[in-house]
Amino acid sequence: MLDYIYRPEDQAIFTGRENELAQLERHLLGKRPADLHLSGLRRIGKSMLIKEFIRRYVGDSTVLPVYVNMEELSETPEDFAVKFIGWQLYWLYGKGETLPLPYLQLSSLIFQVKDQALREALQPIVHELERARPDRQRLLQEAFAFPSLMAQITGRRVLLFLDEFQEIASLANFNQAKNVLKLLRAAKDRANNVVWCICGSIISEMDAITRESQSPLFGQFSHVALYPYSRAESENLIRKFIPQLDNRLVGLLHHYSAGSPFYLVQLLRRLNLFADRGEVLTENLVKRSFVAETLSPGGLIHAYCTYLYNISLQRAKGYGVLRTILDLIATNDDPMTQSELARQIRMTQGAVRTNLKELEHIGLLHERDRRYYYTDAILRYWVAYVQHGIEAPEFPGERDLAAIMVELDRKYQQAATELGQSREELVRGMMRRFARQQVPGDIFGVAEDVLLPCFSKVESYTSSDGRVEIDAIGTGDTSWAVEVKWKGKAVGRKELEAFVGKTVTMSVKHWYVSKAGFTAGAREYAADVGIMLSGEAELQRLGELL
């Protein structure tokens, strides 16, 4: 089932995400459906989640799931209109079990349509395309209205999944299509029995489409976030590849994959290749697998990083300067400020700021407290070596990697720190979605349910002398101070005491988030002074409730 769209090997290794699937079910299949924006980092599993959802409901006679990769459509408006409609008809008739090509060209599409009512619905498109100069605005209007026609004619709710949705913006480069999002919004407002679920790999562009007030689609989509795997989810996937793997090595694989299903699968496949050559599964072999997969030209992580690096820079302006900035941030031990970068590359701060904004826009960097970090820490590790001509053999022995292995733990600890910075941004984003929801107290390590405040402002805090930094301060009717530690060691009492010490002059409620949890002494101290505590699993549960 769905073999042409969702490979059987991918179906076999799909793991976890039951909470996210349940959210999709509630939003898309409920009595009062809601259009969704599914967000998350690149390669976090958004497309696979959608395909798994479709697999589960493609046989349901009350709904018609339609999956469209917009990256394959956004050429000319004429081509877009045919393919956008063609994919809908493919899912009606082909159901993901046949090749889609006959549905993606107008000359063959017409012969695939079995229903007279749908053939008649195609006629306005056919007639418009027969004109010497088709009206592109009319074509887009007809294309965006077609899901509603499909729902009306088939009597089924159309579930329209649009992957890489940000690519629709490329249509605005054509005459008569500059208002493409307005046209889509108008059709969406008129649609009946159609639910939209959009996602994309460039977070900044998706946020601009869905969250900026000047966008026609502002406020039109509920938000569902897809986070990296928890350790438990990583372990479930790991056991599908290596059932008896030692728990310590499970934790190491979770660490080096950063909770990314894609990275984890590639590391497991590389580890199995080493094992097939007679190597014993050890901590050292896990590290060698990571280095080989990331730094050898034959590694799929290496190939993905090469693609991501090149394709992202192709979307941007100023290729040479952007490469220099990425290289400096990757190789420098500490995160860099705009002024530090300007001094290094001998450019004005204004010029560097423009280039940093471009790198943020294409999703390679993010800024926190005036310092810049890679969004993908594994990409940073790749840039630091490969862009300096350092690559690894396909199946390196310990001697081959002696120098790199010495640096691995230090370099990757920096990468883990960057992931922590991203997690702080995630926590601040969650706090901005607090709206007086009542949630179970165990999410915050307390007995009673917690009523989430509605903050007027959420931001990081740095004192005027620069000595005190707090990851998040939420202010409103009540104020919260939040600290986030996303490392492999449990937080102890001393860290909590230091956190309280930072806020002695503030009237705030304290919340501490730690990936690895808390020691018994820390929990006892937190109970005494009233600090709320959340681990990785609790943070994920909270995200699902917002």
Distance between the termini: 33 Å
The number of distinct β-strands equals 15
- Main-sheet strand order equals 2-3-4-1-5
Structural class: alpha/beta
- What share of residues is helical? 40-55%
The description of the largest β-sheet is: 5 strands, parallel
Strand content: 5-15%
Unreliable stretches, pLDDT < 50, 5 or more residues?
Answer: none
Count of helices? 22
Shape annotation: globular
**What is the subunit organization of this protein?**
single chain
Mean pLDDT, to the nearest integer, reads 88
Rg, Cα atoms, Å: 25 Å
Plain-language structure description:
Helix 10 (231-241) crosses helix 11. The mean pLDDT is 88. Strand 12 and strand 13 form a beta hairpin. By secondary structure, the protein is of the alpha/beta class. It is built from 22 helices and 15 strands. The chain is globular and about 75 Å long. The strands form four sheets. The protein has a five-stranded parallel beta sheet with strand order 2-3-4-1-5, with helices on both faces. Strands 11-12-13-14-15 form a five-stranded mixed beta sheet, sandwiched between helices. It has helices at residues 8-13, 18-29, 46-57, 77-93, 106-112, 116-130, 136-154, 180-190, 203-211, 231-241, 247-257, 261-276, 283-295, 300-314, 319-331, 338-345, 349-361, 377-386, 402-432, 493-502, 520-529, 536-545; strands at 36-39, 63-69, 157-163, 194-199, 222-225, 336-337, 365-368, 371-374, 438-439, 450-451, 455-462, 469-476, 480-485, 509-514, 532-534. It starts with 7 loop residues before the first helix and ends with a helix. Helices cover 51% and strands 13% of the residues.
